[in-house]
Amino acid sequence: MSSLPLSSSTSPALALRAEDIVKRFGAVTALDGVSLSLRQGEILGILGDNGAGKSTLIKILTGFHQQTSGKLFLGDDETLLRSVDHARALGIECVYQDLALANSLSIYHNMFLNREIVRPGPFRLLNHKAMRARAAECLEEIGVHVPSVDLPVEQLSGGQRQAIAVARAVNSNAKILLLDEPLAAMGAREAGLIIDLILRLKEKGGLSIIMIMHNYAQTLDIADRVMLMQRGRVTYERESVSTSVAELMDIVRREYRAMRGQTS
Ligand SMILES: Nc1ncnc2c1ncn2[C@@H]1O[C@H](COP(=O)(O)OP(=O)(O)OP(=O)(O)O)[C@@H](O)[C@H]1O
Ligand SMILES: [Mg+2]
User: What residues does the ABC transporter domain cover (predicted)?
Assistant: First the structure.
């Protein structure tokens, strides 16, 4: 057996690593040297104030923006993500908060949007039967229940719609799933649906997830590890089992007081 290189540790393999990422928009520094790692099969929760740089980070990881400086690694390979399509081809999928579902189209159409199954032959006719069957199978597999995959997406609840968006991302064989506030503006029942779905996906294995979150308690429930971003930097990072809502709130409160110029 060959010996391991010195740099390798005993921790699980990394799905993704970002090193000292800086992102500037003109005079605005949105990310000021962010480093993170995502282990295979792990759920990482990112918390932080408005404007902290969370969405910018996700947009870099999904190829939508390119970093001003800093490095990204997928597995062991340094990678410059040129576009969302490029990231997708490498197995990185993102579910944005505004979802990007075509509301008037059916569930199964949405699940195969831009990667439709077509019949063999010169006319590239859509294979509706195959798409229906695959969509139903995929939703069944991850435990998302809808009356029929023929329903237009506009007839679903916000939570169900979010679930379809997640299912679509997973259906594309994503290895890394990025979720920007998937539970925002959702009631407890709908949020519960998405939380269950994410935990089921984790259980199935093979998927690493980064979620931007607002609610500290929900984050600690779902995520293996939690990261706090403040003004373009990562200011705190812990395994979820080693921190608490009280501790997270305390850090944010201290920051808020410092910014208001109070002593404590
Ligand atoms: N395309 C852009 N052009 C210019 N500035 C931008 C752009 N995108 C983000 N910013 C700026 O970068 C900073 C970080 O924004 P970002 O959207 O990443 O924050 P966020 O942590 O996701 O906040 P929120 O919780 O409100 O969604 C903000 O100051 C924002 O104004
Ligand atoms: Mg945001």
Answer: 16-256
| Ligand nearest to the CA of residue 49, numbered in listed order | 1
Which CATH architecture describes the domain 14-102+173-259?
Answer: 3-Layer(aba) Sandwich (3.40)
The rounded distance, in Å, linking the Cα atoms of 195 and 46 is 15
Distance 4 CA to ligand 2 centre (A): 40
**Residue 36 above 80 pLDDT?**
yes
Spans of all domains in the chain: 14-102+173-259
Give yes or no for a contact between 21 and 42, defined as CB atoms under 8 angstroms apart.
no
Which residues, listed in sequence order, are joined to residue 138 by a DSSP beta bridge? none
In short, whether 230's Cβ falls inside 6 Å of ligand 1 is no
Residue 16 exposed, middle or buried by CB count within 10 Å (0-12, 13-18, 19+): buried
Q: How far is the CA of 178 from the centre of ligand 2 (A)?
A: 12
Helix axes 188-204, 158-171, angle to 10 degrees: 20
Residues composing the chain: 264
Query: Which residue's CA is the closest to the ligand 1 atom numbered 5?
Result: 25
CA of 259 to the centre of ligand 1 (A): 19
Structure tokens at 61: 């990881």
Pocket test for ligand 1, best of 25, 98, 211, 255 (most atoms within 8 A of CB): 25
More reliable by pLDDT, 29 or 252:
29
Ligand with smallest separation from the Cα of 50: 1
pLDDT, residue 112, reads 86
For 53, 166, 176, 248, 256, the CA distances from 261, given in Å and listed in that order, are 23, 42, 40, 20, 9
Per-residue model confidence (pLDDT) at position 5? 47
- C-alpha angle 15/115/181, rounded to 5°? 50
